[in-house]
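Lay summary. Proteins are chains of building blocks that fold into shapes, and those shapes determine what they do. In this project we predict the shape from the chain. Here is one chain we studied, written as its sequence of building blocks.
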Amino acid sequence: MPSHRILVVEDNPLNLKLVRDVLTVSGFEVVAAPSGEEGVALAQTCEPDLVLMDIQLPGIDGYEALRLLRQNRQLDGVPVVAVTAFAMREDRERAAREGFDGYIGKPISVRELPSQVSEFLGNGRSDVR
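And here is the predicted shape, written in a compact code that computers can read:
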């Protein structure tokens, strides 16, 4: 079975390395972008199965990047999950309201990340957690 391609949009090199390492060891193919603009551009060519999107990014933020992704019909069915240190209930509610398919809080749990990603892949669009 081919591995799922995960696009990780994350500007912090340490967070990106952690996510990439954990997901790669778990059998996922990881493609990375350090900004919202690059993430949107890369999503159009790399055909991701899932996008993990940091909210706080240089240039356009994760919310604007999500809006741009949703304008592309080819990407409309791809689940996009917010990944952020903003962990208050209001932040989760805003992520859902803005159209994210899920929510993963930072710091990222190395133990839980692979199963969280698998769940989002299996469910497609699901409730924001």
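What the prediction tells us: Confidence is low (pLDDT under 50) at residues 125-129.
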